[in-house]
Design brief:
Length: 100
Amino acid sequence: PSGLWSIDISGSTTSLNTGPAFGQAGWRDNYAHIEASRTTPTVSLLTSPPLQLTGPSTLTFYYFMYGATIGTLSVQTCTGTGATMSCATAWTLSGQQQTS
């Protein structure tokens, strides 16, 4: 991860009642989280190593977006490397999605 992301197996964000206590699969599951209640808007990237895909593929993930200052979560796909890298937004979601 880069920027402000944290990887945990348990615990929550520093804002009270705004994040999960553990990952989707329970206490044994790692999850990534970021604190969204900052006074200055931030951009932070969570990237994977390059994937060599040989056919149609699907990305599946869970999200928890709760709180008044939630911004936007986007998934981008990129091809090429270095100066020839080209990225496109494949999915995006903004604002609070959960009620608690």
